[in-house]
Amino acid sequence: MSYGSIAGGGGLGSRGPFGGPSRQGYQPLATQVDPRDLQELFQETSANVFRINSSVTSLERSLQSLGTPSDTQELRDSLHTAQQETNKTIAASATTVKQMAELLRSSCPQERPQLDRLKTQLSDAIQRYGVVQKKIAEKSRALLPMAQRGSKQQSPQAPFAELADDEKIFNGSDNMWQGQEQALLPDITEEDLEAIRLREEAILQMESNLLDVNQIIKDLASMVSEQGEAVGGYPPQPRATCCPGGLPASPQSSPLHLRVGGAASKRSQAQVGVQV
């Protein structure tokens, strides 16, 4: 599955493929970067990293059930649904990271180490997810011939009509051969054929869920250099600044240990231009 097909846009103004501001239609606005907005983005992405890792753990358990008596159509459906949901979470996380990178590029450089740590955590989670996705697809595909062999047995002998004349002499008459061939035919039911068809569809669905993990990680890693290039591409404008004190503390501490902020009254006084 193409990463671009699930990475949706959203937010303010025209946005690029990761949800960041587009260079087209750029106009400065008198506003401020509210550290509470940054805090929400940090916490949202950190929660998504946790969801991705939890999904990987669940998928690894389901992987062990493939090829066992617990391998049912319900299991295959749940694998497909779980991968679809995780793909959406990854797309949303990459978009949010891009938004934070755009904000911190010109406003809160002191918070960039936190963003770097968050990108590393996200990349590690996506890497784990890519590994288990590949294992599920490979094992499902490997199990399909076994299911087919269980319902379709191949006759060890060629049809009588295809034998040479001398072979027909030693193998008996046509009627005798047809009787032997009839005895070798397996009992293939409509249920068997339907089960094989459903398995094949489930495998195709799982393979369609495969993300280009390497490309996503490469895009995340290149965000820092892209930010540096973007600074030189815009006309000189007043830069937005983070409100005094940096990011405020949250009642629910995030894994990133967001730093304590200043007074709210000081934050409301800062009015500067920000790129959108």
UniProtKB/TrEMBL annotation:
Pfam families: Syntaxin_2. It comes from the Eukaryota. Residues 1-19 have a biased composition (Gly residues). The gene is TSNARE1. Residues 1-36 are annotated as: Disordered. The keyword Coiled coil applies. SMART domains: SynN. InterPro entries: SNARE, Syntaxin, Syntaxin_N. This is t-SNARE domain containing 1. GO terms for cellular component: membrane. Residues 30-141 form the Syntaxin N-terminal domain. It comes from Macaca mulatta. One of its GO terms (biological process) is vesicle-mediated transport. Keywords: Coiled coil.
